[in-house]
Write a structure and sequence with these properties.
By secondary structure, the chain is α+β, with helices and mostly antiparallel strands. Helix content is 46%, strand content 19%. α3 (53-64) packs antiparallel against α6.
Length: 177
């Protein structure tokens, strides 16, 4: 009888456990976003204030979720473990650095043409749904593309080597008459 009662309770509580992340975030009223302070153009300090793509995108994302954005600076090595442990709610990361399923993390749908994803704690379908819906609204409004152009495209243009123009060849000497 105890086994049946325990099993029944586990089944009933399971959906509640999956909704914990979205409920916790909504109760706090803020989305904790882990960023690296020296990772231009994604996030960097400018006059003692965080700036960059991750910062503006994070603010817009939080607004879409009816939350405040709280940016937490962390070393690169601590970010994904911090998201997994619940120290941070999300982080933006390149799609090719997407956490493996066994890591306890999962990722959003890819964002924009640069294919960034948002990593968050695994097994949170309500949060995943809210996140992907907010991302879609940012894409549909053109805000994602605007931020990519402002921060990422311009940065890549600045990093691209300038085309080398050959120096004009010197004119052949004119024979003396």
């Amino acid at each position: 009888m105890r086994l049946t009662t325990g099993l029944l309770l586990a089944i009933l509580i399971s959906p509640l456990a999956q909704a914990e992340l979205i409920d916790e975030i909504n109760d706090r009223g803020e989305l904790r976003i882990a960023v690296q302070a020296e990772n231009a153009p994604y996030s960097f300090k400018e006059n003692d204030h965080l700036s960059g793509f991750d910062i503006e995108f994070g603010q817009d994302l939080a607004r879409e979720l009816d939350l405040r954005a709280q940016f937490v600076e962390a070393p690169a090595a601590d970010i994904l473990p911090g998201v997994q442990s619940g120290m941070y709610d999300i982080t933006l990361t390149p799609a090719d650095a997407t956490p493996q399923a066994e890591s306890g993390l999962q990722a959003s749908d890819p964002i924009g043409k640069h294919a960034l994803v948002i990593a968050f704690q695994k097994d949170n379908p309500a949060f995943e749904s809210a996140l992907n819906n907010a991302l879609q609204r940012l894409k549909d409004s053109g805000r994602t593309a605007q931020l990519e152009t402002t921060w990422l495209d311009r940065s890549q243009e600045a990093e691209a080597p300038s085309p080398v123009t050959p120096a004009p060849s010197e004119p052949a000497p004119v024979p003396a008459h």
